[in-house]
Input
Amino acid sequence: MNKVAVIVAGGSGSRMGTAVPKQFLELKGKPVLVYTVETFFRAFADIKIILVLAPDFVLQGRDLIKRYFEGSNIQIAEGGNSRYHSVQNGLKLVKGEAVIFVHDAVRCLVPENLIQRCYQEALQKGSAVPAIPARDSIRMVEGNKSKVVNRDNIRIIQTPQTFRSDVILPAFQQPYRDSFTDEATVVESSGKDIFLTEGEETNIKITLPADMLIAEKILEERRMA
Amino acid sequence: MNKVAVIVAGGSGSRMGTAVPKQFLELKGKPVLVYTVETFFRAFADIKIILVLAPDFVLQGRDLIKRYFEGSNIQIAEGGNSRYHSVQNGLKLVKGEAVIFVHDAVRCLVPENLIQRCYQEALQKGSAVPAIPARDSIRMVEGNKSKVVNRDNIRIIQTPQTFRSDVILPAFQQPYRDSFTDEATVVESSGKDIFLTEGEETNIKITLPADMLIAEKILEERRMA
Output
C-alpha cells in the first residue's frame, strides 16, 4: 500500500518565546523538522511526505528541503486557520489509496518502529492512534466542581495519527466544527471507530523551551544505547 | 492557623533505574528532597514538616535532616504499603487544628507562592488542590473502544494537595480503598468537595531520568529571571 505522511508544522513560535518557530529550531545542529522527516523516510523508503507550513514559512521550508532532501518525494502544502484546515490542505495532495500518517512536525523523536507499527495496524483496522497512560492524577471539571477520573482509563494522545485513506479522506469532507481538535475527532465524527496503539514516552512534542533540552538528552541516550 | 507539610517520599527509585531513590538524587549539588523542604520553610517560617520515608531510608533521612535542617521543626514518619497508608502515618503526628499540605517529595520545584496561595484557599474553602490544563489530546478507554474527552475540562493534578485539618483528618479515618489514589480522592470519598486552584507548569514531578535535566534547566532559568 502507498504511504503518505502529512507533517503539520503550522506553528509560529509564540509559546517558545523565540523568533524562530519551534519546528525550525536547531537541535544538535539540525532543525527539528529535519529529524522528523528523516525518520519517516527511514521507516519507509517509498513514503511520500507532504509538509504543511504556515504561508510565511513556505520559503524557509523550500530552502530546508533543498538542503536536506533534494530529490526526495516531498511536497509543500500551505497551512490554514486551524489544525483541521491545515491537514485538509495537506490531504488534497494525496492521490489514490494509501495509509496516511498525520504527524506533528515538532514530535521529532518519533521512533521508526512506532511509525511502522501504526502502518500495519491502520492498514488492518482503518486507524491507529498512538497513546500513552497518564503519569499524574486527572480530574474533570464541571462548572466550579471537579471529579476524579479513573487514571487507568485515561490516554494521552500522540501522533502519527494513522488512517487508511478510505477512512480519513471522506472524514475531511465534513464541514469544520470547533470540536475537531485532532484527526481522530474528525474521523470519529464521521462515524468511524478510533483504534489506539501503544505510544512512546519519548515521542514528545517540543512546545516549551525546556523541551529542547529534553530532546537533546533523549537523542544522546539513544546514541549510547 | 498552624501549618503542617506532610512530604511523602515513599519511592525506592525503580523507575529511575538508579540505586538511589529519586528524592535523594543530587540536583546541582543538593538532594532533591532538600529543595522541597527548603521551599516549604521559605513559604512559612513557622511550618512543621513531617517527612514520610520508606523504612529503609529513615537513617538516610535523619542524616539529611542533621546536615541541612538541624534545629528545624521537622519529624520523620515511616511510609506504609500505599500512598494512603504513608500519608495516614504522617497525619498521626499532626496535633491540633492546622492547614495541612500533602506534597510529593519529588516535586522539588514547587514555587513558594503556590504553597502560600494553597494555604489561603484551603483555609477559606477547606481544600485547595493545584491543577494545570492538559497540553495534549486526551481520550478515555472503555473496553477496546475509546472516546475523546473535552480537553478544556481536563485538569492534571499536582501537589501540595492542601486541606484544613477538620477536612482531611476525618477522611483518613476511613478504611482503605483501592480508589484512594491521592488525598483528594480520600477527602472526596468522605463527602467533602474538592476545590482546585491553578497549578504551575514548572511544578514537575521527578519520575524519569530526563526529569532531572529539566529540573536543572528550570532552576537555571529561575536564577536568571
